[in-house]
Write a structure and sequence with these properties.
The protein is an alpha/beta fold. It contains 14 helices and 22 strands. It has helices spanning 13-24, 40-45, 47-66, 82-106, 164-167, 184-195, 215-227, 282-285, 321-335, 364-369, 385-390, 418-430, 435-439, 450-461, and strands at residues 2-9, 29-33, 110-113, 115-118, 123-128, 131-142, 146-148, 161-162, 176-180, 199-203, 231-233, 237-244, 247-253, 259-264, 266-269, 273-275, 308-310, 349-351, 356-361, 374-380, 396-402, 408-415. The strands form five sheets. Strands 1, 2, 3, 4, 5, 6 and 17 form a seven-stranded mixed beta sheet that branches. Strands 8-15-9-10-11 form a five-stranded parallel beta sheet. It has a five-stranded antiparallel beta sheet with strand order 18-19-22-21-20, with helices on both faces. β5 and β6 form a beta hairpin. α1 (13-24) packs parallel to α9, α3 runs antiparallel to α4 (82-106) and α3 (47-66) runs parallel beside α6 (184-195). It is globular. The protein binds flavin-adenine dinucleotide. Flavin-adenine dinucleotide is lined by residues 9-15, 32-35, 40-42, 46-47, 50, 115-116, 143-146, 164, 185, 276, 279-280, 312-314, 319-322, 324, 352.
Length: 467
């Protein structure tokens, strides 16, 4: 029987990063993955394919809506070849997952294909196509991720009533796509199909889209999406979804109990994801779940069985690839006797719609709830030369700083390239910068990042320069 210092179950961004870091630190490491390709949800049916389709659909929208105003004339009609668009996305996925195989090889991590199932606290059976192999590991990291969840009364047929996984490989552009859930995944995929010509209607239970982000961001994105003719029904409780042939009917009640009936050809259910522990043999090893069905862990991501750890979507916290990665590194370093730390307040959240939305730290709602005295500096993207040059005028940067110390407490942006620009907020907050620190830093002109300097100036002394 092969013996390892560490066995990681699941090869998503949590698992594969944990495996690399364990190997870098000199541990004999194995990674177990049930699918043919490595990379988990993120690389196969999550972050990467959704961004590939967002990019393709963005190019198409630019071609049909914006090229002309830039003086670019396309003779004839611009058309979408969906099959080719999906094939390009798949090629991107394949290149990326192959990259993980290369990294496993480079770091001498043994890749074992099959469903990993604990038989006790140090042994794992790996089942692949009817064959079973057993391995022994001193330490085990559970990184089995999550699966789309649904509502109890919805029957996902995966043809017309679908999850994000199917939405990434549709064979036709929906005529009317009804999306249940106005969170990140629903809005990103909604925008893909809206750009490609679908009518898109979102039904959200809470009173705003992106309900966990700063309300200012929700408000601005709502404005932009409505301008793009996406229909957003917030404060609506879906009560039934029925498919008959090619038609899907969704019924929902608004907050006054008034029923709306929506008819479309596809219904995308994006009501969240649930931790995935099926077939993992948790009972055999004595690993306990928490009250919400996630693998229970302490602050060091250790389960109730001391040599078994769990990371990523299968444990508490934001379901984000970079959060899973940080946790993978943390556990590897703990096992090597180091003293790593994660500041969960500084894990950024990003929505890759256009304009992009990005956030780190506390929202205004959280600061109010915690009774923290804060000041706000906000600067609109449209006041920037860079934004006028590219015609990306929507959005703003908002910096929240402590009223007495000026320390940055929250950093919220919506606008072109916010997904990349949020790194400045993370850096600033990691080093506990004041708004004045940011305001006094030179920001290249003309860039979208100038809005950050201006928002910091507004937060510090209410003296933005360009408005
Ligand atoms: C459409 C979509 C878009 C997304 N976009 C983003 C984004 O832009 N940015 C972002 O940060 N996050 C995004 N996410 C979320 C992100 O994909 C997850 O947070 C991330 O993949 C979690 O990583 P993980 O390692 O915990 O688990 P996963 O990536 O889910 O990987 C778990 C792996 O474990 C394997 N596995 C499970 N059980 C077993 C077993 N018993 N034996 C062997 N293998 C097993 C699974 O097959 C899977 O490969 C998106 C998700 C979706 C669905």
């Amino acid at each position: 029987m092969n013996q390892y210092d560490v066995a990681v179950i699941g090869s998503g961004p949590g698992g594969y990063v944990a495996a690399i870091r364990c190997a870098q630190l000199g541990m004999k490491t194995a990674i177990i993955e049930k699918y043919d390709t490595l990379g988990g949800t993120c690389l196969n049916v999550g972050c990467i394919p959704s961004k590939a389709l967002l990019d393709s659909s963005h190019h198409y929208e630019d071609a049909i809506k914006h090229f002309a105003e830039h003086g670019i004339v396309i003779p004839g009609e611009v058309k979408v070849d969906l099959e080719r668009m999906i094939a390009r996305k798949q090629a991107v996925v394949e290149q990326t997952t192959k990259g993980i195989e290369f990294l496993m090889d480079k770091n001498k991590v043994d890749v074992l294909q099959g469903v990993g199932s604990l038989t006790d606290a140090t042994h794992i059976n790996i089942d692949h196509k009817g064959k079973t192999q057993a391995i022994e590991a001193k330490n085990i990291i559970l990184a089995t991720g999550s699966k789309p969840s649904t509502l109890p009364f919805i029957k996902l047929d995966k043809e017309r009533v679908i999850t994000s996984t199917e939405a990434l490989k549709l064979k036709e552009i929906p005529k009317h796509l009804i999306i249940i859930g106005g969170g990140v995944i629903g809005l990103e995929l909604g925008q893909v199909y809206k750009r490609l010509g679908a009518e898109v209607t979102v039904v959200e239970y809470m009173d705003r889209i992106l309900p966990t982000m700063d309300a200012g961001l929700s408000k601005e994105l709502t404005k932009v999406l409505k301008k793009q003719k996406m229909v957003l029904n917030v404060s609506h409780k879906v009560k039934s979804v029925e498919r008959k042939g090619k038609e899907v009917t969704v019924k929902a009640d608004d907050k006054k109990g008034q029923e709306i009936v929506l008819k479309g050809d596809y219904c995308l259910v994006c009501v969240g994801r649930k931790p995935y522990t099926e077939g993992l043999g948790l009972e055999a090893a004595g690993v306990k779940l928490d009250d919400r069905g996630r693998v229970g862990v302490n602050d060091e991501l250790q389960t109730n069985v001391p040599n078994i750890y769990a990371i990523g979507d299968v444990v508490r916290g934001a379901m984000l690839a970079h959060k899973a990665e940080e946790e993978g590194v943390l556990v590897a370093e703990l096992l090597a006797g180091q003293k790593p730390h994660i500041d969960y307040n500084l894990i950024p959240g990003v929505v890759y719609t256009w304009p992009e939305v990005a956030s780190v730290g506390k929202t205004e709602e959280q600061l109010k709830e915690q009774g923290v005295e804060y000041k706000v500096g906000q600067f609109p993207m449209r006041a920037l030369g860079r934004s006028r040059a590219s015609m990306d005028l929507d959005g703003f940067v908002k910096i929240l700083a402590d009223s007495s110390t000026d320390e940055v407490l929250g950093f919220h942006m919506i606008g072109a390239r916010a997904a990349d620009l949020i790194a400045e907020g993370v850096t600033a907050m990691e080093f506990r910068a004041s708004a004045e620190d940011i305001a006094r830093m030179s920001h290249a002109h003309p860039t979208y990042s100038e809005a950050i300097k201006e928002a910091a100036l507004a937060a510090t002394e209410d003296r933005p320069l360009h408005i």
